[in-house]
Amino acid sequence: MISRSEYCVVACAEAWRDNGEVLAAAMAPVSTFGARLAKRSFAPDLLLTDGEAMLVGLDGEPEGWLPYRRHLTMVTGGKRHVMMGASQIDRHGNQNISCIGDWSRPARQLLGVRGAPVNTLNNPVSYWIPKHSPRVFVERVDMVSGVGHDRAAAAGATRFHRLGRVVSDLGVLDFETPDRSMRLASLHPGVTVDQVRAATGFDLVIGENVPYTREPTGEELRLIREVLDPEGLRDREVRV
Fold it and tell me: Sorted alphabetically, which InterPro entries does this protein's record hold (predicted)?
């Protein structure tokens, strides 16, 4: 039986399909397993990072040195595809990882803006959100950290602005709509449209026949279970 977390790994992997030779930067276990699965299966030209200063091979061993200044050069040159997280995200892909509540007196302090603005305006960005809920998928983010389609357009900064997909524990979302607002692209098997609608704090674009997220192949399942995540960390991140 295929678990929800395994569908999530496959959906994350698909974010890097046809990217060519770029640095796949993931920031959570499931998205990291997705990047490594992509390289082992259909995206052999991907570069993988340990998240600090090394390029790593399929076995996780260092293959090259990537000092931070070079990493930033790849970011500003568009040669990295990062899969970030989001404490909040809205219908146009604006992301918040900074604070909850009014900026002048926030109820919660989070990570801070970090590199989200530069990421979203210079290299491809996708998102992995392990808990799809109205608290995360909001009508309006409390602060913009990562730039969404509407704000990029208003600033005239769309030339290198590329938001790919948003993968959650319920399905896959994208921005393939006329106004670049969020659309339900696929459901993970076992999830219903009504579940996604109830877990989203704004009106998603939902077609009449939403497909299911693709099944992992037998070889992909073997890689996930025996090579990439034999300890089952994916099931700790995606709890059904």
Answer: CoA_trans_fam_I, NagB/RpiA_transferase-like
- Owning domain of residue 129: 4-237
Under a CB-based contact definition with an 8 Å cutoff, are residues 197 and 204 in contact?
yes
3-state SS, one letter per residue, for 57-81: CCCCCEEEECCHHHHHHHHHCCCEE
Domain count of the fold of the chain: 1
| DSSP symbols for 162-197 | -EEEEEESSEEEE--STT---EEEEE-TT--HHHHH
Would you say how long the chain is, in residues? 240
The average pLDDT across 176-201 equals 97
The pLDDT of residue 181: 97
Rounded to 5, what percent of the chain is helix, strand, coil?
30, 20, 50
Three-state secondary structure of 103-135:
CCCCCEECCCCCCHHHHHHHCCEEEEECCCCCC
pTM of the shown model: 0.94
